[in-house]
Amino acid sequence: MVIDSLESWQSVRTEPHEFIEVGEHVVVPQTTHFVGRDGIGVQARNTWTFTIRDGMIVRSCLYQDKQEALKAVGLEE
User: What is d(CA 43, CA 23) in angstroms, rounded to the nearest whole number?
Assistant: First the structure.
């Protein structure tokens, strides 16, 4: 599970770059900053998509890049 893997880090901070609404989907390109127990920092860029129905997230999916996520929700930039 994703949450369990976060325990290995001293700190984790997510920086969303934008929120793109496409119908019932929201595409969120982001950078996540991790700091390990020895103080070494790394970062990862990725894009999440969230499907929202009746005000609740019913599906989320992680993509390696924004274009792939946009294509998955039917929008190409």
Answer: 30
